[in-house]
Amino acid sequence: MLHHDELIRRMEDGVRNQVPAGGGDDKDAFTIVRLPRHVREMNRSLYEPVMVSVGPHHLSSASTCGMQPQKWRMLCDFLRRDGRDDAAGLLLLADCIKAVRRMEQRARRCYGEVPGPGSDDFVGMLVLDGCFVLQFLLRWSESDARCMQGTSTYVYYDLLLAENQMPYFVLAKLFNLVKGIEGDAVDPGLLHLIFNLFKLREPLGQVRPPALAPEDQFTEVQHLLHLQYQRIVMIPERQRLRHMTELGMSLHHIPAGHASFSRTRADLTTTPLAMPCVTVLQEFGVRFKERPSPVSQFDVTFHGGTMDIPRLVMNGGTRILLANLFALEQTRDCWNEGTVTGYLVLMNALVNTGADVAVLQRHGILDNMLSNEEEAAAFFNQLGGSALFDPRTHRYARLFKDTNDFCDSRWNRYMAVLRRDHLRTPCSIINLLVAAILLFFSVISAGYVICRYRHSCT
Q1: Transmembrane segments in this chain: where (predicted)?
Q2: Domain boundaries, the chain
């Protein structure tokens, strides 16, 4: 057993080795975290970079080591921008190092795990990675197709991985230094550069986010994935709620069939925890349609037996983006009612097998560009099945309730039995028609016999 004083010393050393509490605000803490092991191990290709690492989490990854020389070349090009000679570039580099060192503790506070590199290595990593990202954005905006020698698509998706991020305030400071801008205010030009990158690849499908929204909507950006989340999810969802408000709908009393963020206490005791899949819902008479002109990619509604779902393009980029937007929600306070979490929970309920995917394809809701329907179904099942959420209050809880209420009506249950037992195969349909014809002739014959009997009696 350790001596009392020795234990105190070891505990004090452990406290002193942690990130200093004065390194930043609480809003900076743990904005770039390691995903839970079971989530990452489920599909590493969705969460680990294949080309370039940004930040400390994947610094030693074998797949990204080959990009290190390219990072240094991009750093040199970044320092020589606007006609700077080598001497001016080295002065700019010194200014970048000094500025990042002043915000080192704030940057360390952003990571879920205390980064292992020492002070010099950590600051050097932030400067190198930050200048690389900025030079990549600048070259992309200049339409320099040679900037990454054909690997720019991989870099694009690597920059949107939840674990592969760096604090936005570091990027903003480095951008201000290279542009000669005084102060710590974020220059709108940086947002233009990032959106110019984002707008060239919008893999989700029908809904196109605005190329550039007003800067005042992005006052609290944590990193590039968080900015993309605000652009793809939060701004369209605000527009949807604003549209409902303009129609006079209370957020606490949205009509049946319309999903909402808000839940009334009465709903909490009656909301079902599950919902049948697409092929079963069809037996109950539920129809599936592509939603025309949706406000948001996640604007799914159910009304009058029809479920309207915006079209989704399923490809490799969609899988990466949805998985990391989902991971961002799951590691934040919004995991309980997150929009992407709720959407994947809904799709997990609707899609059990490739047959469900095939139905959604026929109705124009899914453009599946993966190898087969089973792969698309497995994607939704893996993410939706691993989601942490409250089944009573998630984004589509009201839609679950309305759909189940529709299926529970007596007429729809009878129709489901008819479709399942007598209309599933051509043979069963023929047997039903034959039985109906025989019944018809039996009724006619019985009527004829009764008429003859009454006529003979009279």
Answers
A1: 429-451
A2: 20-201, 253-409, 425-457
